[in-house]
Amino acid sequence: MKDNIVITGIGVVSSIGIGKDAFWQALEEGKSGVKPVTLFDTSKLRVKMGTEISDFKPEEILGSKGLRNLDRATKLLLCAGKLALDDAGLEINPEDAGRAGISVGTTVGSLWSISEFDKSALRDGPHFVNPAEFPNTVINSPPSQLAIRLKSKGPCATISSGFTSSLDAVKYGIDLIRNKRAQIVLAGGVEEFCEQTYLGFYKVNLLAGVKGPELSCPFDKRRNGVIFGEGSAVLVLESQESAQKRGARIYARILGYGTSFYPYAINKYEPQGKGLKKAMKFALEDAGLSAENIDYICAAANSTEEADLIETEVIKEVFAKYAKTILVSSTKSMLGETFSAAGALAVAATIGAINKDFIPPTINYAQKDPACDLNYVPNKSSKEKINKAAVNAFGPNGSNSCLVVSKI
Amino acid sequence: MKRRVAVTGLGVVTSIGIGKEEFWKNLIQGKSGISKVESFDVSGYSRSFGGEIKNFQPLKFITERETKRMGRASQLAIAATELAFKDTKADAGHLDPDKSAVIIGTTMGEANIFEILNKAWLEEGLEKVDPFLVGRTTANLLSVNLGIHYNLGGINMVIPTACAAANYAIGYGYDLIREGRIDFAIAGGADAFSRIAFTGFARLYAMSADICQPFDKNRKGMLVGEGAAILILEPLEEAKKSGKRIYAEILGCGLSCDAHHMTIPSEDGITRCMQNALKETGVKPEEVSYISAHGTGTVQNDLNECIAIKNVFGEHTKKVAVSSIKSMLGHCMGAASGIEAATCCMAVSEDILPPTINYRTPDPDCDIDCVPNEARRVKVNIALNNAYAFGGNNTSVVFKKYEG
């Protein structure tokens, strides 16, 4: 990647901490965000857990005005966006509002809003739906509301590519800067905790707790599915030149990105991870690095039997003799599977690792799976100075992406 | 080195024609695709017209098995892609998967599967919700289904920026080819007729009771439509070498966000969008022959769009032809700007402008040349494709005649 794009602001709203400092501290402590679901009734289901953000009070971050008609996904993103902008020491002024862009990964926007609007029309009749809730049914609603809230008038894009959405949104944001359509871009992703998505994951047998313990335990022999979760992370992207000009603190540089869709089947992991392997190779090539330059891999492993094994195998192929020494951990052991938000949260976590000299652990690791035999940083974070890291995202529909970041 | 980007194939699936030939013939004849809505019961609504595609036969494009595992939006997208492949005489099997992209815009994604699930959930309870269908609801499946159908890897994503979505997808495809990341893009948009969209626009009182009359003084609102359009994008030099038909060259695109209101468009946002498009492409206002308007037929949209056009084009405003094909198709949501992009390509290629039909009474506030009721044969050098969306996500893509 020839563009000199750096990250100068981080906003995180997660089940283990709100704001980047709380988030990083929780990652270092190996805190779990998993708890019993409270937002809806799970009594008829065989699973009960999730990573809800139970202490989420958007008014504390956004003020109390203008929140009434916003859904949860939108509020999560608005908070992460506001935190990121504040963290970057930025204000979007009317004069240069057209130079500020937004690029957000979300696959269903607010599924809750779409479903409730439709059900209200079916139940009460089309005349009785709340017209103020109709705009929430479009998938681009959360990013657009962020633009309205921040008065950001440059490009505003929404990217839907399932599990890789927010990494792909970061790349779209980079491209906005390289094509001179924006000077700064708020890039990230969001996923809300709601009954519809939870049931969706449940119905397609992705959730842990049916075939084994209800745990998010990536790479562990007991893994049997994901703990579904929510969250949002937003990164402020700009060129190094722009950051230096305004005297901004630079957290990390984005060195490379790779993506490779592998056509296989809906809701099934392609067992050999051919797409992920390509995505990682492309990202390394784009960064102009070889495998031995990477110190840490923030894995996408989400505690499903297939995904964790695939990622392990791919790392072994791509990193060859370095695979056994490279540090690999899955923050999803703490955050659960936050779907469209996962990539951005993983980038935020990796920047914490780079800046605070620690590797987030893979918690709930107790039983070794002989097929998963890399250094997963089990249960306790380790103190390490790292320079370059790869962040993975991939999912069962064939999307695979990888982002390489480095210390400045 | 930046490469030039050509449009080498067009595939359209609309209420007035399936395939470029039928679509274009009917479009320049000013044929309307509006009819009584039949895909769901509209007896509880005060509105009953829309732009459904009544004669779409998915089995012409996909297998019966595929029809069961895909929503209508994916089916429309695959049909449009198949038509585009045929048009450009390419087939997916010969593409380099590492140098290809599938980028699809949509507003509602696979909403009709979702609507089936909601109905079942409400009427029969959660246990009856079909798990097979649950995994088939997410918006990204539009591009995933295309990738799987053609066994095509590469870059694969959906850009769901509502009613400007296909323009975003085409714009990103253009970026990727220009910078050499890919050599072949399948870019466009698809949306199926959606109960949710129909309900919402009816409830916002934004929908006309019968016809769509953009820029007319007595315009009564928009109509919901459906459709899909796919543009095949390739590096211009390569297309030229292989002797392919080049419909148009894409010069660039302008993007902006209103940052104003979710549903009320702002003249400021769309003014900046067109300005960004002209600035990026170096095209002067007087060089633009045609604007394919967003032109939904609502009082507010058309007024704002006309003000914005005057802001950008100043004294040249009267010399620019501006028409809205939504007068014929209704608003095909995320597909709309894709169908309109295909229209721009045909306009610069054939030197014909499609009309704005149903135009009866001039509106002094919309005193642009809207090509009223009759198509026009005129030299079309540069066309600007405007698309605006819920959330104020605006795009204008610039197409230029290719003269060898």
Q: Can you describe this structure?
A:
The complex is a heterodimer of chains A (408) and B (404). Chain A contains twelve helices and 15 strands. Chain A is of the alpha/beta class and 408 residues long. Chain A folds into two domains: 5-245, Peroxisomal Thiolase, Chain A, domain 1; 256-406, 3-Layer(aba) Sandwich (Peroxisomal Thiolase, Chain A, domain 1). In chain A, the strands form three sheets. In chain A, strands 1, 2, 5, 6, 7, 8, 9, 10, 11, 14 and 15 form an eleven-stranded mixed sheet that branches. The two termini of chain A are 15 Å apart. With 404 residues, chain B is an alpha/beta fold. Chain B folds into two domains: 5-241, Peroxisomal Thiolase, Chain A, domain 1, CATH 3.40.47.10; 251-400, Peroxisomal Thiolase, Chain A, domain 1 (3-Layer(aba) Sandwich), CATH 3.40.47. In chain B, strands 1, 2, 5, 6, 7, 8, 9, 10, 11, 14 and 15 form an eleven-stranded mixed sheet that branches. In chain B, strands 3-4 form a two-stranded antiparallel sheet. In chain B, strand 10, helix 11 (299-313) and strand 11 form a beta-alpha-beta unit. The mean pLDDT of chain B is 96. Classes of the chains: A alpha/beta (408), B alpha/beta (404). Chains A and B meet through helix 4, helix 5, strand 6, helix 6 and helix 7 of A and helix 4, helix 6, strand 6, helix 7 and helix 8 of B.
